[in-house]
Specification:
- By secondary structure, this protein is of the alpha/beta class.
- It has 3 domains: about 100 residues, 3-Layer(aba) Sandwich (Rossmann fold), CATH 3.40.50.720; about 35 residues; about 60 residues, no CATH class.
- Helices cover about 50% and strands about 15% of the residues.
- The chain is built from 7 helices and 7 strands.
- Strands 3-2-1-4-5 form a 5-stranded parallel β-sheet, with helices on both faces. Strands 6-7 form a two-stranded antiparallel ribbon.
- Strand 1, helix 1 and strand 2 form a beta-alpha-beta unit.
- Helix 5 runs parallel beside helix 7.
- The longest helix is centred in the last third of the chain and has 24 residues.
């Protein structure tokens, strides 16, 4: 996992696979420059939705495009071109993903389940994308969309516990026990802590 916010990703290829890769990068707040002779319709929609973070260039691979980027994706429909791209990336110490060729890629795009700050990645190391999708669908049934609120609440309570005047061991025990509590129990804990915080604040103000 890489913090992609504000980072520049260079994509060679304008087909459906390249489109899916770009969409993933944009959802992670990254910027994409796409170089291709042709683009599927989806790219123009991305350009409208993320206009400040998408640049479409009608051209073929040229080495100078590799300047000022953090990651590269080789998604052209020409095997030789993709090979040339990764060779040039290697010379410049740039990480490159060659679509459908995980064995020569420096990194891969796993299937991902997102529930707010909970991110679960699934990969079969290229052995079976279909299995990755099957596992993803199974995980999505277990961790439903409302789990996002649960994770957020865990984060709020965690910060409050860490700020308490308790030993590190006591804090650790409380934090470990949080994940076994239901949403209702967490809400109750949060409300109780809020009451305590307010009472403490009033006591300090009256002094």
């Amino acid at each position: 996992m890489i913090q992609m916010c504000g980072k520049n990703v260079l994509v060679f290829g304008g087909g459906r696979v390249a489109y899916r890769k770009c969409e993933s990068i944009l959802k992670c707040q990254g910027n994409v420059v796409v170089v291709s002779k042709d683009f599927v319709e989806g790219f123009y929609l991305l350009d409208k939705e993320y206009s400040h973070r998408v640049t479409l260039i009608e051209d073929e691979f040229k080495e100078f495009y590799l300047d000022n980027c953090h990651l590269v994706i080789a998604a052209t429909n020409c095997k030789d071109t993709n090979q040339l791209i990764i060779e040039n990336c290697s010379k410049k110490n740039l990480l490159c993903n060659v679509v459908d060729h995980g064995e020569i890629s420096d990194y891969i795009f796993p299937s991902v389940v997102r529930r707010g700050d909970l991110i679960i990645s699934i990969s079969t190391s290229g052995k079976s994308p279909s299995l990755s999708m099957k596992v993803k669908e199974e995980i999505e049934k277990v961790y439903t969309p409302d789990f996002e609120e649960y994770v957020a609440l865990l984060g709020v309570i965690r910060e409050k516990i860490l700020s308490q005047d308790k030993s590190d061991e006591d804090k650790k025990k409380i934090l470990n026990g949080l994940v076994n509590k239901s949403m209702e129990e967490l809400c109750l804990m949060n409300n109780e802590q809020l009451t305590i915080d307010n009472e403490n604040l009033k006591a300090k103000s009256s002094k």
